[in-house]
Write a structure and sequence with these properties.
- This protein is mostly beta strands.
- Helix content is 0%, strand content 50%.
- The chain contains no helices and 11 strands.
- The strands form 2 sheets. Strands 2, 4, 5, 6, 9, 10 and 11 form a 7-stranded mixed beta sheet that branches. Strands 1-3-8-7 form a 4-stranded antiparallel beta sheet, with no helix packed on it.
- The chain is globular, with a radius of gyration of 13 Å.
- It starts with a strand and ends with a strand.
Length: 127
């Protein structure tokens, strides 16, 4: 069972950059596909991006393509979300998610695909 802890959120001006991290423990990290989701006030949680267990494949939601990058370091049990050119509409609580895929090179894109979730970290982009 994976345990996930996000960090690195904060306040940034529009156009700025921020990197959020997710540290995993409790199981073999390289067996898990990882994803990032976000939830803005009054809105449903939405997919931001995902990465396969090896890191060779990524998928992004259209509104963040070209601005956000997901990477992972399996030796350090960490997945990163690098966010550039931030916009006020990126303001949300960002959640890390994990699902055991036993080495299959898949990127999971739906909330229902993931069993394990972090507690979230707040990202606020001011205009």
């Amino acid at each position: 069972q994976a345990r996930l802890v996000e960090s690195g959120g904060g306040l940034v001006q529009a156009g700025g950059s921020l990197r959020v991290s997710c540290a995993a423990s409790g199981d073999t990290f390289s067996s898990y596909a990882m994803g990032w989701f976000r939830q803005a006030p009054g809105k449903e949680r939405e997919f931001v991006g995902g990465i396969s267990c090896s890191g060779s494949s990524t998928v992004y939601e259209d509104s963040v393509k070209g601005r956000f990058t997901i990477s992972r370091d399996n030796a350090k049990n960490t997945v990163l979300l690098q966010m550039n050119s931030l916009k006020p509409e990126d303001t949300a609580v960002y959640y890390c998610a994990a699902e055991r895929v036993l080495g299959r090179e898949v990127v999971l894109t739906t909330i229902a695909s993931y069993r394990y979730w972090g507690q979230g970290t707040q990202v606020t982009v001011s205009s």
